[in-house]
Amino acid sequence: MKRLAILDDYQNVALAMADWESLRPEVELQAFHIAFATEDEAAELLRGFEIVVAMRERTAFRQTLLERLPKLKLLVTTGMRNASIDVKAANERGIVVAGTNSLPHPTAELTWGLILALARSIPHEDAGMHSGKWQTTVGIGLHGRVLGILGLGKLGSQVAVIGKAFQMEVIAWSENLTGERASSLGVQRVDKEELFRRSDFLTIHTIWSKRTRGLVGTAELSVMKPTAYLINTSRGPIVDERALISVLENRKIAGAALDVYDQEPLPADHPLRRMDNAVLTPHLGYVTAENYRLFYGEAVEDVRAFLAGNPIRVISTA
User: Which of 65, 229, 262, 317 is at 20 to 30 A from 36, Cα to Cα?
Assistant: First the structure.
């Protein structure tokens, strides 16, 4: 019998989202509901497993960890890209890395929830209503405002279409974005400095990589309007966290809405948790019942195919 670990099942729902029972009796299942505190803890608790199913980048599988998992033969990640897995190191150790499909729209939907939360002070007013208050803020409208999009790929394009529906002026920049691509979506391509200078709401939708780490730093944040808002549903390290905390503390921008962070789960004593001009959600971008059913359903298919000797949706460096 092979042992299978399902990692970072924070909500304790993974086993109800797919037909894991179809893998029995060949596979013994164990779900972990709490994030590993250290790589040492991950190595200790996972050393006896042949199969691991990871949820996105919640647990990093670097070479140092992979070398400490002698039984691991199959590593499944939800999604077909995971920057926290050293695929090359896994392949060199004979570990098959497989992925799943994912829905394209949940993160774009959450982005608009966060934009509206900022514009209309929804979290603040909700808290006020629950404590007996009535109308304590004055919000702003989206009509006619400038929506800036950093990264006009699949997600950014969806966000742009909705921005146009709100009758916002939509501008965008990324390193490889062409004017033709932007124009096809009714979006104006601008340079990076103009993106940050003109945007009333600036939302990030670029891939996390070595190239994009710290892409938004002091220089970019310093040219934003004092009335502007930053939204990040991509990956935390794309934004220099210290620089962002500084502009929020000093009220250099109106606020930020964040779904992603340098360290996840976000520590309980993190300074962002104390800021009244920050709307925070716990990396909910892809977290919907529909996406979980797709993730875990295809993870079961990946495991079944691997056991049959015909791995599917294999991710490699070749």
Answer: 317
- Please tell me which residue in 125, 194, 241, 264 is annotated as part of the active site: 264
**Residue 204 phi, psi dihedral angles, 5° rounding:** -105, 125
The pLDDT of residue 208: 85
On whether the CB atoms of residues 206 and 233 are closer than 8 A, the answer is: no
Which amino acid, 25? P
**Mean pLDDT, residues 200-220 taken together:** 94
Catalytic residue among 56, 145, 283, 301: 283
Is 205 tagged catalytic? no
Sign of CA dihedral 42, 43, 49, 55: positive
Residue 283 among the catalytic residues: yes
Q: Does the predicted model carry a pTM greater than 0.90?
A: yes
Integer Cα distance of 5 and 2 in angstroms: 10
Token duo for residue 113: 């929830």
Provide the strand spans (E) within the chain.
Answer: 2-6, 27-31, 51-54, 74-77, 96-98, 146-150, 169-173, 188-189, 201-204, 229-232, 255-258, 278-280, 314-315
Active site residue 264: yes
- Containing 104, the helix (H) or strand (E) segment is none
Q: Residue 79 is which amino acid?
A: G
In one-letter notation, the amino acid at residue 181 is: R
Give the residue from 234, 266, 57 showing the smallest Cα distance to 151.
Answer: 234
The answer to whether the CB of 143 falls within 8 A of the CB of 168 is yes
Please write the tens of the pLDDT for every residue from 171-206.
999 999 999 999 999 999 999 999 999 999 999 999
